[in-house]
Amino acid sequence: MPKIRAHKSFIRKVNRLIRSVPGLKEKLSEVTETLQENPFASPLKTHRLSGNLRGMHSCSLTYEIRIIFKLEADVLYLLDVGSHDEVY
Fold this sequence. Notes:
The chain is of the alpha+beta class and about 90 residues long. It has a single domain, classed as RelE-like (YaeB-like fold). About 35% of the residues lie in helices and about 30% in strands. A five-stranded mixed β-sheet has the order 1-5-4-3-2. Strand 3 and strand 4 form a beta hairpin. The longest helix has 14 residues. It is globular, with a radius of gyration of 12 Å. The model has no long low-confidence stretch (mean pLDDT about 95).
C-alpha cells in the first residue's frame, strides 16, 4: 500500500475547491482512500498521461475534477487537481 504525499500547490488548490464545491471534502477522502488501497481501481478511471505529463497518471475525483499524481515505489505523490482544462 503506497503512502500518499501531497504537493503544496495541490493542497492550496484542493482547499480552494473544497470551499466552492459542496461535498467535495468527503469525496476527496473516499478517493484518496481508494488510491491508497489500489491506484488503478475501476471507479477512479485511472490512466497514464502522455506528452508534457509523461510518467504521471490521472484519476477522477468527480465527473469534472481530475487528480494528477505520480506513483514511485511506495509513494503516491498528489501533484495537481482541477478541471480537465486546468490540469491538462
